Amino acid sequence: MSATIYDVAQRAGVGIATVSRALRGSGSVRTETRERVLRAAEELNFTPSRLGVSLAEGRHAANGVVFPTLSGPYYAEVLLGYEEVASELGRSVIILSTQGRSAVPELVRDLAGRVDGLVVFGRTAPSGLVAELVATGKPTVLLTRTPVAGADVVTSENATSARLLAEHLLGHGHRRFAFLGGPSGGADVDERWSGVVAALSAAGVPAPQGVALEAYNVESGHRAGLRVLDGASRPDVLVCAQDEVALGVLRAARELGLDVPRDVAVTGWDDIMAAGHAWPPLTTVRQPMRSLGAGAARALDELITGARTEPRTLILPTELVIRASCGCD
Amino acid sequence: MSATIYDVAQRAGVGIATVSRALRGSGSVRTETRERVLRAAEELNFTPSRLGVSLAEGRHAANGVVFPTLSGPYYAEVLLGYEEVASELGRSVIILSTQGRSAVPELVRDLAGRVDGLVVFGRTAPSGLVAELVATGKPTVLLTRTPVAGADVVTSENATSARLLAEHLLGHGHRRFAFLGGPSGGADVDERWSGVVAALSAAGVPAPQGVALEAYNVESGHRAGLRVLDGASRPDVLVCAQDEVALGVLRAARELGLDVPRDVAVTGWDDIMAAGHAWPPLTTVRQPMRSLGAGAARALDELITGARTEPRTLILPTELVIRASCGCD
DNA sequence: AAAACAGTTGGAAGCGGTTCCACAAACTGA
DNA sequence: TCAGTTTGTGGAACCGCTTCCAACTGTTTT
After folding, report:
1. Which of A19, A24, A215, B314 has the smallest number of Cβ neighbours within 10 A?
2. Is the bond into A73 cis (omega within 30 degrees of 0)?
3. How far apart are CA A243 and CA A218, in angstroms?
4. What is the CA radius of gyration of chain A?
5. pLDDT digits (tens, 9 = 90+) for B155-187
């Protein structure tokens, strides 16, 4: 096995307390002694055991993230932003994906035992479980998820951007809307729905047709697209709750011989990479995915260090990205 | 703080050894005693400290993964496959992304101290560092990366698929090839290059023009595409080392008023989601991304548990995916 | 009935660090 | 010169668990 602090102490001819102080720069150690310790540590190729340190310090120096999946760019980007900041703050990131898992509560509890705090995305762990974690005093940040008492929330703006998007589409003359997303697509999707409904209502236009999805991915969007676009009463525009759904709709339209945006307009949400490369390029709402992750990491750090004790909600701004699929150009 | 094993022992009126045995089912404990312990643990809401368990067991029950980035679907998909299997094997996954980081060696060493073994992707940590880790006896699996003595390698087939791809393109009548990838694009890209070169050489066609990229993403492909396609001596086909690069090339071609595949053919590699949704749909080589991750997780588990001590190389098959961007249809 | 035995159990020794506390040595100021 | 710091250091007490070992109980074997 590798060298322990006792080996270093013996080699340097000092006590383990002095080794610890010399290596981590705490307490005062005579320069000459420090150098002797450093040399001994170097010679033995000593690296402090992370477990020993954590046990003694009473902290893991690690955070957990619970997300549904990394299929699709959204969660991956958020995770990336999160990991970057967490790493800067000296914390490792332990991941847990829940999609397709059966024993989610057990996995989440296990994860909670390995970290100082965790970030939980929407559509992963049930709220009861989150409440249970919060109750044990585990710092928790909720990402794009309905609030739970005692936990931070980080999310991006939805309702207003949805309203702006809908108003833009109304400006194109579209009147018959379909919204591909619900039901219970999670807090964020619900807010987008509300925003669209509000805009149409204000304009005196009939409420959008709500189209339920089994999942938020291309296949699901494709199936829904075929279903919605094939009927006689085809909508003017399909507002999709996610870009991937919209990509599936674009494919469905192509297969049905429909031209987007002439025959039907399509919009997405998130502004993933593929959105700009689709044909036609997708009009969508850009979410600051990296910033969401970064914001969650900072919020969690504040809760863990105790820099802040009161839970807080952080809402990041989004941006309407007009391309061609709405009817522009 | 939360209850410890001592609290449970006291409440149940037994020793901590008995509590440990009762809870983890090791050793023999009288049924009546076990039930008393279980009840006490339940009442105190006891969860064994992960740090205490790990320190005593001498293992972390966690693995690390080092990857460049999660921008783009490739690494995300592999990571997903990895996490799924690791989780099944009872191991948590700690992630570390290196792109844009300055202190990579320190970060990797720190990570190594928190895990029982790690997976290192290509283009992240320098080989010297990996060799150092392997030398300390840390089980290591290399993913799509040049081998290091003592470490497992998991990768997917490159040279043969590249040859097949090139032969298909030759069948379309293309003769002037450009390869967007090198130099030193990593072991996998080098193999793809070799495969293409071999096919052209066998057909008596001039060797491909090698086009260096600053990075493997859409922007980089876009810039390279503008450069290569704008000249007088435009190639017949641009073989890209990655789908994202190819997507950038498609955009460049569109901007230059070129029709793909009539004026120039384009191919990618990986078969990411966007490849099928691009216009024209991208001919590419599908890598089994999830399986790569899953294979790495299993290989690492074997090394950690000692089920296998000799390093091994696992090469997964790929599949040529013919769509329209090569000239088909 | 004595001896061998299987089943239970608690004490204590780690695992590898951090840090409190006591103590000695060297320094400060009057 | 002497009391009162300041500095440097080691011993030992944790942190929370697993597991070896010895002891103790109640059977079963001879």
Report:
1. A24
2. no
3. 8
4. 26
5. 999 999 999 999 999 999 999 999 998 666 688
